[in-house]
Amino acid sequence: MSSIAFLDTGRTDTQLQRSYRACRTLNARHGKTFFLATRLLAPDQRPAIHALYGFARRADDILDDIDPSRPATERAARLDALAAQFTTEDADADAVLPAVLHTAHSYRIAASLFDSFLESMRMDLTVTDYPDRRALDRYVYGSAEVIGLQVLPVLGTVCPVDEAAPYAAALGKAFQLTNFLRDVDEDLVRDRVYLPADELAAHGVDRDLLLWCQAHRRTDARVRRALIAQHAHTRGIYDYARAGIALLDPRSRPCVTAALTLYSEILDRIESLDFDIFVHRARVGIPRRAAVGARGLAAAVWSRSRVGGAMKPIGTQPLLPLR
């Protein structure tokens, strides 16, 4: 049984508008690639997507943006408070939660998905290494796959939602694994390694060797081989997830295609850097982002003109619009 039970607190339209705008501002500030992709969605879809990602960003802030010298128990208490606010009138004390609650109600998003997300966030307080793929997959389910499952009802599908769900989860997973590869250096600073220890060990790599690479600002040949293997694994997940785009409502496909394209090209950039991730942070340049965005915008306008508002995606409910 879920520990979160959503409470409809009867908030006014003004309160909800303010909360949705706070989520949009949060995402515009923190996620350039993501925010660009959301611009390709229909206007009525964007607020809900911003709300769901705003909640994820809010939890990340608790984990990463406060003084790292403060004990894990303090951050755990803040995460518990965030979860508790779902079920009390105190949700209004947090800028993003009214919009998240409204989105969850409107699209009938399972509360268990938020539980799983918070469970993985709590793991970040105490878990610093993952012994094998199974352990990492448990974390990734809550930290990324559930995000894909949360947004799926907002995107809409041309089939039963359950048929599209594995692809949506896989895309969230691919995005997360891409982050893990790109951010090995940054994660080490936070005392975390998000790569399966047994798969690293198969190439003669352990945490000490990763720390040596970080200290010397170079990628050891053994580490490079291990990263190449992780890179190939992530590519395979993108290939699987790509097949799910055709199951989405046509007006959502340009957004998801753009997001998949830009995030997967981070892998291209890592490869072009010869996996020199301890010196360079892999990025997709502004001109390329603009080109993908322009192509996606043209596709979005075309798909909306064809649908003409007559098609109602499966599993969606109307949302409060942002004026």
Write up what this structure looks like:
This protein is mainly alpha-helical and 323 residues long. The chain has one domain (13-306): Orthogonal Bundle (Farnesyl Diphosphate Synthase). Helix content is 66%, strand content 0%. The chain is built from 14 helices and no strands. The chain has helices at residues 13-30, 32-38, 46-64, 72-84, 97-107, 111-126, 133-155, 161-182, 184-189, 197-201, 207-216, 221-242, 253-272, 286-307. Helix 1 packs across helix 5 (97-107), helix 3 packs across helix 5 (97-107) and helix 6 (111-126) packs antiparallel against helix 7. The longest helix has 23 residues, at 133-155. Mean pLDDT is 85; it is low at 1-10 and 309-323.
Q: What kind of sheet is the major sheet?
A: none
What is the overall number of helices? Answer: 14
How many structural domains does the protein architecture include?
A: 1
Which class best fits the helix and strand makeup? mainly alpha
The percentage helix is 55-70%
Shape: globular
Mean pLDDT: 85
Amount of beta strand: under 5%
Rg is 20 Å
- The stretches of 5 or more residues where confidence is low (pLDDT under 50) are 1-10, 309-323
Give me the secondary-structure topology.
Layout: H1 13-30, H2 32-38, H3 46-64, H4 72-84, H5 97-107, H6 111-126, H7 133-155, H8 161-182, H9 184-189, H10 197-201, H11 207-216, H12 221-242, H13 253-272, H14 286-307
Helix pairs in contact: 1-3, 1-5, 2-13, 3-5, 3-6, 3-7, 4-6, 6-7, 7-8, 8-12, 8-13, 12-13, 13-14
